[in-house]
Amino acid sequence: MLRGILPLAAIAALGLFDPEAANAEQVALTSTVSVKNELKYLLYTPDGYATSTESYPLVIWLHGGDQGGSDIDKVKSSGIPKLIEDGKKFPFLVFSPQNPSEELLYPIEKVDAALEEVASTYRVDRSRIYVIGFSRGGFGAWALAEQFPDKFAAIVPIAGGGNRHYLNRTNEKAAFWVFHGSNDGVIPLSDSVVLYERLKALDRNARLTVLEGVDHSGVEWATLNDAELWDWLLKQRLEGAPQ
Amino acid sequence: MLRGILPLAAIAALGLFDPEAANAEQVALTSTVSVKNELKYLLYTPDGYATSTESYPLVIWLHGGDQGGSDIDKVKSSGIPKLIEDGKKFPFLVFSPQNPSEELLYPIEKVDAALEEVASTYRVDRSRIYVIGFSRGGFGAWALAEQFPDKFAAIVPIAGGGNRHYLNRTNEKAAFWVFHGSNDGVIPLSDSVVLYERLKALDRNARLTVLEGVDHSGVEWATLNDAELWDWLLKQRLEGAPQ
To answer: How far apart are CA B240 and CA B243, in angstroms?
Structure first.
């Protein structure tokens, strides 16, 4: 017999206690406890943002493993935030969450919640949200593409890896550009190749750039210094994206 | 120059507006918006639970893709919840969250938050929390082992797959028993083999059972009807688990 916990207590209170009530039961419940978020991030706003009324594209930058933890300044030491610190200008917003763990993968539901907060606080063009990630951030980029498929116009995983079985859940309208070095001794090139080939089999808009002779640490800068990446990225647009 | 948004507004309000203030800036912020949870689940309490004061082991059951969605009764149609509905008794609690998506992977941070709610509401032996998952739930089991390594004494992925690069983040004290059918045409056996071999290379307590001639749908029942699994499972204990 299956009974809820409260009805059982009520029966006992009424003196109608049934010896079977101590027996096994399987009940349906709902958890409404929230997942707390305390995600640190850097936010870059471009020249002219403060004085305009326009919406801007937004790039999510997911750093590699070395910048995880609680010291947000570490995030400035690599990738897009480092380029910005060194004076580079971009014509889009950059949202750079810090993985709170130094060891584990990104908590992507928290990253998504923080992204929603940023996208509703700043003037973001919802049809032009892009994710770029390196290494552990590359795994995060693949995971975001699979788990929140309706949000990203383009996904750029650099030296990452992921779950090929769920690539069929990614958005048919999204564009993928995958980068990997041929001499990567940390995450093998084959990880990107498997995912890329699966995307092509699914008839997705996907391209793969293999940087010959480049190792794991080299591929991050080689990719971000490729001017063609930025030209390509800003042309991507997700028609019908949620506003 | 880097400035926070509020100081900039304050400067403007004071009439000290600096033309440079409209320039690009990169600021550090923190997102405190919570991730809402409305995770449905089944909870099984064993014979004697209601009248005892003991703590019990807890099994997390992660169903395969077919039971996802919002109809909680679907979760009763497979796996451990189905065995319970059919009258089988277990000497442990069973927490069976429903994947709210019919297509995507489990939202594992929400699953973890609901697990914490259950473990603090019921009398759960924290050193004996186990996760068993089939197919998409097998992917969930591997993901939980990697992302919440301090919680599970044993992990049993059935016909799943996952991320071999982060297996070094799993708990050295946890035990793994991996099941897969040799005739699986949905998730290939090699997915489990790769993960198992990586665990062995990491010197983890891991075993692999390949069910000869068994296909994807057959491996769920073959595993759950293996009496040795339950004997083995209940012996696993995570010393020093958080209470």
So the answer is: 8
Q: Which residue of B has its CA nearest to A140?
A: B163
Counting the structural domains of chain A, the total is 2
Helix (H) or strand (E) holding A57: strand A56-62
Which sign, positive or negative, has the C-alpha torsion B96, B98, A113, A120? negative
Residue B158 belongs to some domain of the structure: yes
Does A68 share its domain with A155?
A: yes
CA–CA gap between residue A66 and residue A78 (Å, rounded): 9
Q: Residue B207: inside a domain, yes or no?
A: yes
- How many other CB atoms sit within 10 Å of the CB of residue B153? 24
Whether the ipTM is more than 0.85: the answer is yes
The H or E element that residue A63 is part of is: none
What's the CA gap between A102 and A85, in Å, rounded? 22
- Does residue A24 share a domain with residue A86? no
pLDDT digits (tens, 9 = 90+) for A175-200: 999 999 999 999 999 999 999 999 99
Instruction: Answer whether residue B242 is part of any domain.
Output: no
Residue B72 and residue B5 in one domain: no
Of the listed ranges A130-139, A231-240, B175-184, B197-206, the least confidently predicted one is A231-240
Residue with tokens 């993960």: B195
Q: What CATH number did the domain enclosing B55 receive?
A: 3.40.50.1820
Among A2, A6, A11, A26, most B C-beta atoms within 10 A, so best to mutate, is A26
d(CA A103, CA A138): 15
Partner residue opposite B24 with nearest CB, options A41, A47, A113? A47
Give the domain extent around A15. 1-33
Same domain, B51 and B125: yes
Chain A residues within 8 A of B28 when measuring between CB atoms:
40-42, 72-73
B111-141: per-residue pLDDT in tens?
999 999 999 999 999 999 999 999 999 999 9
Interface of A with B in 72-91 (CB under 8 A): 72-73, 76, 81, 84-85, 89-90
- Both A99 and A193 in a single domain? yes
Residues B14 and B60 in one domain: no
pLDDT at A3: 40
* Interfacial A residues in 175-204 facing B (CB < 8 Å): 187, 191
**pLDDT surpasses 70 at B78:** yes
Cβ distance B49 to A24 less than 8 Å, yes or no, reads yes
Half-sphere exposure of B76 toward its Cβ, with a 13 Å CA cutoff?
Answer: 16
Same domain? B56 vs B107: yes
- Which of the pair, A20 or A62, is modelled with greater confidence? A62
**Same-domain pairing of B152 and B100:** yes
